[in-house]
């Protein structure tokens, strides 16, 4: 066995990590990915030229690290992941380790339970399809509702900020990160003094209508977002707007 520690995996190591995650995803029926774009601590366990197990962690604050671990399906329950975990704990003995795991990944859940990690919270990934054209029954709708109006400006080529106004006063905002085949909605909020008046539903509806009416080459086929499973009003709001839960991640603290 050969243990490799690095904070900057080279092309070969990155290729091996992608192969490990693809093999595991096919076996576990999930869409797990290592956070290689982060400034991270990588613990990799090899047998000859084959990557058996990997644990990658990065700091989310001064005393907490978010950790992503994965072991080849045929090499599980052999102590490989435990060896990597011990390495990380030895280096950061006073650091809390936060592990996200897909709710349908039985091996991952069993591993965290065996570690006696504590469940913290669940994060939902929600998704909504955008009609191919505006001819979806909305063609006669206007980009305003209940005296609400919307404006937008680009922060960059792939980031757009939207603001909502009622009687010309700002009442809320959201942002959109444009990706290749989808767009990520984040930062949706209504001004605190105005919450509980139905503005969340109205603003989200206005945003979706506005986005649907964009020319086809300026919008994506889907919009997705993340929301805490503890935030029941937000989950209900997004479901009402047509978003569906695609997958859920549970977070465990070790």
Structural commentary:
By secondary structure, the protein is α+β, with helices and mostly antiparallel strands. 24% of the residues lie in helices and 41% in strands. It contains 5 helices and 12 strands. Strands 1-2-3-4-5-12-6-11-10-9-8-7 form a 12-stranded mixed sheet, with helices on both faces. The longest helix is centred in the N-terminal third of the chain and has 18 residues. It is elongated, with a radius of gyration of 22 Å.
Q: Outline, from the CA principal axes?
A: elongated
Helix content: 10-25%
- Percentage of residues in DSSP E strands: 35-45%
* Assembly status: single chain
In whole angstroms, how far apart are the ends? 26 Å
Mean pLDDT: 91
Q: Can you list the strand order of the major beta sheet?
A: 1-2-3-4-5-12-6-11-10-9-8-7
Taking pLDDT < 50 over at least 5 consecutive residues as the criterion, the unreliable ranges are 136-144
Quick one: biggest sheet?
Answer: 12 strands, mixed
Number of E-type strands: 12
* Estimated structural class: alpha+beta
Total number of helices: 5
Kindly provide the radius of gyration, computed on alpha-carbon positions and rounded to a whole number of angstroms.
22 Å
Q: What's the order of the H and E elements? A: EHEEEHEHEEEEEHEHE
Short description:
Helix content is 24%, strand content 41%. It has helices at residues 11-28, 80-91, 106-114, 199-212, 232-240; strands spanning 2-6, 41-47, 50-61, 64-71, 96-102, 118-129, 148-156, 159-166, 169-178, 182-190, 222-228, 244-253. A 12-stranded mixed β-sheet has the order 1-2-3-4-5-12-6-11-10-9-8-7, with helices on both faces.
């Amino acid at each position: 066995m050969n243990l490799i520690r690095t904070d900057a995996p080279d092309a070969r190591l990155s290729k091996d990590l992608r192969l490990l995650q693809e093999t595991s995803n096919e076996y576990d029926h999930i869409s797990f990915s290592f956070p290689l774009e982060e400034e991270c601590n990588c613990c990799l366990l090899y047998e000859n030229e084959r990557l058996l197990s990997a644990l990658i962690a990065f700091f989310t604050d001064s005393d907490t690290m978010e950790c992503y671990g994965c072991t080849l399906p045929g090499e599980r329950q052999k102590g490989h992941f435990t060896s990597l975990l011990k390495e990380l704990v030895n280096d950061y003995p006073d650091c809390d380790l936060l592990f996200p795991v897909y709710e349908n990944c039985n091996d991952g859940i069993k591993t965290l339970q065996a570690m006696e990690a504590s469940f913290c919270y669940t994060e939902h990934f929600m998704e909504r399809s955008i009609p191919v054209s505006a001819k979806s029954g909305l063609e006669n709708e206007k980009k305003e509702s209940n005296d609400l109006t919307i404006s937008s400006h680009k922060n960059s080529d792939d980031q757009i900020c939207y603001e909502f106004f009622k009687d010309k006063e700002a009442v809320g905002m959201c942002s959109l990160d444009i990706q290749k085949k989808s767009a990520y909605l984040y930062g949706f909020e209504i001004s605190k003094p105005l919450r509980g008046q139905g503005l969340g539903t109205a603003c989200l509806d206005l945003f979706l209508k506005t986005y649907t009416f964009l020319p086809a080459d300026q919008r994506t086929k889907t919009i997705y977002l993340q929301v805490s499973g503890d935030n029941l009003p937000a989950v209900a709001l997004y479901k009402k707007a047509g978003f569906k839960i695609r997958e859920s991640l549970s977070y465990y603290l070790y």
